[in-house]
Amino acid sequence: MSAIRALPGPQEAFLSSPADIAIYGGAAGGGKSFALLLEPLRHIARKGFGAVIFRRNAKQVRNEGGLWDEAATLYAALGGRPRESQLEWIFPAGTRIGFAHLEHERSKYDWQGAQVPLIGFDELTHFSESQFFYMLSRNRSTCGVRPYVRATCNPDADSWVARLIDWWIDQRSGRPIAERAGRLRWLIRSGRDLIFDDDRERLKAAHADSQPKSLTFIPASVHDNPVLLAADPGYLANLNALDLVERERLLGGNWKVRPAGGHYFRRGYFPIVDAAPAEARRCRHWDLAATLASEGRDPDWTVGCRMARSADGRFFVEHIERFRGTPGQVEQAIRNTAQADGPAVTVSLPQDPGQAGKAQARAFARLLAGHVLRIAPEQGTKLARAAPFSAQCEAGNVALVRGTWNEALLTELESFPLGHDDQVDAAAGAFATLVDATQAAQGPIVGLY
């Protein structure tokens, strides 16, 4: 068996840190989960030792290629015996490495009375602050191994973890401060406040009733993982293909970037052309207003975006239909627009959850007889749905056909996710319909009537 060892650099620094609490990562592809799996192996010959590695929910533990799958190869090679029903590995000395979840806030209380020498958190930003600090009270040991915590994460500017590690982060650029990587600081928790000091004894003297814990943050990125880059050369390309915000987070390790106007779409991304190629697949996706035109001072718009995808993979926004109206007016406008577009243009609509959404789908099927109609539930947040479209726009693969609607669309795109987002939702929906021909042909299609 070949030697199992950490990669030189940040992964090695993480696995050799003396900190009570060490947090590793802050970008994608740095070998975070593998490092977390390696950590408990140093103690598997110590009788009475046990470790638990948490994900927020059980499904994440069992995901294809996730913690359980990764552990199978690694732990079996060292004599580990799996108990899949318990999500744990047992080693010859009787030591155990388990996997668990804290899916609900109250799940932390399932660990009352537990004594866990090593606690790991995979993707710490997915857990609440109270879950983390409660589990610190379960981080105890009588086996001779000093109790400690190891965690991994990706950046999240709005997470409590961002506040926890802000000393290691440049507050202007959002990037880690290289010379602070791996340096220890000491902290105590007083109520909801975290109090830090570079000197343990000084902190202890000022708070005699508290026991300081050492904390460090060690950043890493895909560039610190040559094994991954060699095994999967396309992974770096995948990160570069993300929208600006996600690319800054997952490739650049930026802890301060947030969605803001201009981060997802910029006017300069879009060439203006006179027409899309005649030979292209086409659809019009509708984003239906949630409020009537008479409600509120600035209600939502109903928007239909017609988009074409050429044989060479380029996308063309051909037309935007945008109006406010009553439900009856909306239905009539969708029907009239479908007739004007012709039967070669697929009509795509979002389906609301529940029985009401099914009834609405049947109503539109009757309304749009003679047209290919695709009705599917929307998946994920608005930002998540817009992200793949944004990445293609930034790459220069999306053009606008010249029209009077261009300026209104560009203005909304530039301001996204601020203000109205109806046109963005419609364009992202049209893009999603066209980008996967299989889904468009075999997904929840109401049919050809």
From TrEMBL:
Gene3D superfamilies: P-loop containing nucleotide triphosphate hydrolases. Keywords: Viral release from host cell. Residues 286-430 form the Terminase large subunit gp17-like C-terminal domain. The keyword Oxidoreductase does not apply. This is Terminase-like family protein. The keyword Lipid biosynthesis does not apply.
